[in-house]
Amino acid sequence: MIRHAMSSRTTAATSQIATNVGRSALRRAARAVDGILLLDKPLGLSSNAALQRARRAYGAAKAGHGGSLDPLATGMLPVCFGQATKTCGSLLGASKTYRATIKLGTATQTADAEGETIATAPVPELMPALVDEVLASFVGVRTQIPPMHSALKVAGRPLYERARRGEVVDRAPRRIEIHSIARIAMGGELLEVELRCSKGTYVRTLAEDLATALGTVGHLAALRRLAVEPFGAARMIALDEVESLAERDPQRLADCLLPIDAALCDLEAIELGPDQAAALVHGQALQVEHAPAGLVRAYDRSGRFLGLTDVSASGVVRVRRLFVPGVG
Q1: Which residue among 9, 27, 28, 45 is least crowded, i.e. fewest CB within 10 A of its CB?
Q2: What is the pLDDT of residues 65-114, one digit of tens each?
Q3: Are residues 66 and 178 in the same domain?
């Protein structure tokens, strides 16, 4: 049977999460917690620091995140616990939506508000129609040179380490795509835009390029990530709230977690019978009638998410990645 919608959150799965989080989180014991937290990363904190605080709040043994945010940036940071860490790769490659504030007339060393001013220029009178035309010209596939002040590694070392020593190294242009970009507000030296872009897009560099196209210089004054696909504009949980719930209401803390397959809900799904599910978990190929071809989610009849499978045009189902505790 083919299941086209994401599986329901079963009572058993929810209870297991609550048990794993439970009062043991207060003791900070490392537990097997599985699920995804859409964390609202606060200003001034690195993504890793936010991740570690969330992991401690849940008492989770294993955690990862789905795409770094600079300390300057706030917003959606998907934190994946346990089996959900296997989805981090797909989240890293997903499109993201940002709200960015650009300060025109001032360029900084780091292309953001944390750097020293290195250049100033007059800001021409900007009419909304002109700004919209310039923004529209940035939509589509383009190349971008990563900034020196970034975590991108060259020869095994982050670029920002070299930049702090005053070094400049060659960086290969990277292909990115701006899916959409729109003016939200403008006034004086500030321009606020909302954009949806591919992985690997440096919004700081984009801010500089936009300022140049508008006839001046500029830098990224503020950045907030609104969404990571496929989560859309789902509700985020503030880090302070996560830590507060860990102390006073572990059940509500558990309820903040999305199921693992929420990160994969844009894929087709199939439901397997008991024998088929058992065979799949043991790595065996299956023949399934009327299964959609391609990368497909697999469930058993109780709604338990088993993993990702590759389905051939003839209906042969093979394991791509299992998401069953203790397997894969």
Answers
A1: 27
A2: 998 898 889 999 999 999 999 999 999 999 999 999 999 999 999 899 98
A3: no
3-class state of residue 309 by DSSP? strand
Q: CA-to-CA distance for 158 and 167, rounded, in angstroms?
A: 12
Together in a domain, 75 and 86: yes
Give residue-wise pLDDT tens across range 266-308.
999 999 999 999 999 999 999 999 999 999 999 999 999 999 9
The pLDDT-based confidence of 5 (bands split at 50, 70, 90) is very low
| CATH number of the domain where residue 139 is located | 3.30.2350.10
Residue 16 phi/psi, 5-degree rounding, is -65, -40
Nearest to 216 by CA among 105, 297, 81, 77: 105
Give pLDDT, residue 327. Answer: 61
Cite the active site residues.
Answer: 70
Query: Tokens for 32?
Result: 């097997």
Domain C-terminal end among 248, 263, 278: 263
Pair 257, 274 in one domain: no
How far apart CA 214 and CA 218 sit, in angstroms, is 10
Q: What residues form DSSP beta bridges with 186?
A: 191
Number of domains in the chain: 3
Residue 170 lies in a domain: yes
Torsion of CA 133, 137, 140, 144, to 10 degrees: -130
Q: Tokens 């993504």, residue?
A: 47
Q: What distance, in Å, lies between the first and last C-alpha atoms of the chain?
A: 25
With H, G, I as helix, E, B as strand and everything else as coil, classify residue 135: helix
Q: Which domain holds residue 284?
A: 267-322
Question: Quick check: is 186 in a domain?
Answer: yes
Per the CB < 8 A criterion, the answer to whether 206 and 96 are in contact is no
H-helix or E-strand containing 298? strand 294-300
SS3 195: strand
C-alpha distance from residue 327 to each of 24, 43, 226, 259, 306 (Å): 24, 38, 34, 18, 10
